[in-house]
What we know:
By secondary structure, the protein is α+β, with helices and mostly antiparallel strands. It has a domain of 90 residues. The chain contains six helices and seven strands, in the order αβββαβααββαβα. It has a five-stranded antiparallel beta sheet with strand order 6-3-2-1-7. Strands 4-5 form a two-stranded antiparallel sheet. β2 and β3 form a beta hairpin. α1 runs antiparallel to α6 and α3 packs across α4. It starts with a helix and ends in a 10-residue tail after the last helix.
Amino acid sequence: MKPTEEQWKLIKDVALDRYCGVKFLIDGYAVKVQINRVSDLKLALYVSVDGKINAGWMDPRNSDYADIQKRFLKETKVPCIRSTAKNIRIFGKKYIKDINKKKTLIMYDVMWNSFKSLRRHLVSNNDSIVVTGPDFLVDMINKSQPETKKQVVS
């Protein structure tokens, strides 16, 4: 089950609150969406899975985490990585040559600038989305649903 249009409006209001985040159970993973400050005048939505953000999840070459990577922002960039000593130490010489030949780099990011794009991504890439927290949001969603179709776990 996925939330309805009215329920997504409630979820958005809570997610954009600075002191509160929204917890979901998405395809068996506990996912939290919370707004955080990126710079002085910029806020963004951060996504964490099972209460943490693992750097290994962001690497598209790591196919072990393909199921977890579905929750993050997939970015395709055209890089220009120079073969400096620092970059060779970070990326490796072979990786720099491969990327510069392909001219595309796929990366995953935990930061979303728009709630609308986050919602669209979650709905299209996941089968089950259930709101699990905070409690007042779960209560509001339960009240907005008919008695026979309650999907929210408290």
